[in-house]
Amino acid sequence: MTQDEALSLLKTGASIFLTGQPGSGKTHTVLCYIKALQHLGIEYAYTASTGIAATHGHGVTIHAWSGIGVRGTLDRRDLDMLAANRRLAARIGRTSVLVIDEISMLPARSLGLVDAVCRHIRGTPLPFGGLQVVLVGDFFQLPPVVRRDAERPMLPLHHGSDDFGMEFAHASPAWRDLAPTVCYLSEQHRQSDKPFLEVLAAIRSNACIGLHRERLAARLIDKDRLPDGCTRLFTHNAAVDEINQRELTKLGGEMHRFTMLAKGPVPFVEALKRGCLSPEIVALKKGAVVMFTKNDPAGRFVNGTLGVVEAFDPDDGYPMVRTRGGKRILAEPATWKIDEAGKERASISQVPLRLAWAITVHKSQGMSLDEAVIDLARAFEYGQGYVALSRLRSLSGLHLLGLNERALRVHPNAVAKDAEFRAVSEVARAAASRLEAAEVDRRHEAFRIACGAHSELGEAARARGLKGASYPKSYEVAAMRETHGNAYAPWTEAEEKDLKRRHHEGETVDAIAASLGRKPGAIRSRLKKLALT
Length: 533
What we know:
By secondary structure, this protein is an alpha/beta fold. The protein contains 21 helices and 20 strands. Strands 3-2-4-5-1-6 form a six-stranded parallel sheet. It has a five-stranded antiparallel sheet with strand order 14-13-12-11-17, with no helix packed on it. A four-stranded parallel sheet has the order 18-7-19-20. It is globular and about 85 Å long.
């Protein structure tokens, strides 16, 4: 499915699982959707399973947004206490669209708790209280962090009994009840190197053997042959911190320190700090290897652009960075913020840089790198090697220090589900492609009006026959779906086929409506559209 096709489905108000390989444009697509929601004045919440991912859309973690925090369970008393929190209840009550990024790292149990809170506060048994839920991520990347027995610090490599797959969000009853439409993005915007893409595909299917391993082995280098100024990716924090401080100390010259500025309530500020890749104090010297930690609106750099501090501006002291591509960029302070109800709740400001002789694989998620030294000799988690390698744009940019068997494995549960996700995504794409433009516009318009947004139907759309039909409000749809489960839901190919069969067999409109979970008027309208009456 293309990004445009997925965006069109998002605009119908259907709950969506937006997935695809690294570099397929998941974050870009959801940010385009958010811009559309902002333009229409539709209330949304951008959240993520981690603070780092939440900063992509000026959001917070799903744990903070929903109020579940670090809870593992919720009883009725807990739910009542959360509902009594005016700010939390107002936030959840006014939201129309909930985005949860990096869904692969959210445990199934946590997704269920979010669902329970939304249903309770919004006062409806509908999944997530009737919200449009947009789940974004790739289950081949880092899995949820869950408590494990001390005797089992790592997941087993075999394909035997392994209940960890049940921790994935897609195993949650909340996911089943939501039944999101799968949009599996098929375009590739990061890599064009065919041999490298073949290696990544082999790892993604747990079939990295023969030629694929030979290609990786050909990129192995000795520690005394490391390329200058090239970022190193490690699996453990301790190695990263030690390398960065050691390399900075080696440099001569004056140290320049840049202190983060913060504004807003302490809990929000602390959340922003945890999610920001730039530290509270950025200490730099001329010659320091750095990485930009934020996408530049002007397009001069992205999260992951590498460079070297060449000088410090004589007027304001900000670092001048020469990127690996030869650009000279003045790294002026950038702002990370949390928006709520269209207003800024908190913000931090810092030069968008961090020392980058080394970074962890975890912090590299979402980055695109031209070149990196990667050490996977101590990889300990499914997907770690895949995440690290897929940051690179080409095989020629890979300098491999070490590799263990764990690094070449993704979770077998992810492999098993991938074929299913691809298949149902193709069904959704095919069904959407058969819709007439007027019907697509009508569905977009119905969702906008249900959310209380102003109509955006232009003259061209009206010329196709949209006469400004009256659409129900979201709470009316919720009420109807308690007795007619599919009210105002898009028709699938299977439903139309079932409708035709029942009509030809002589079933009454009321009987068909009861079987398909729709109102009799909707059945009559569909029969007319299909030229059956």
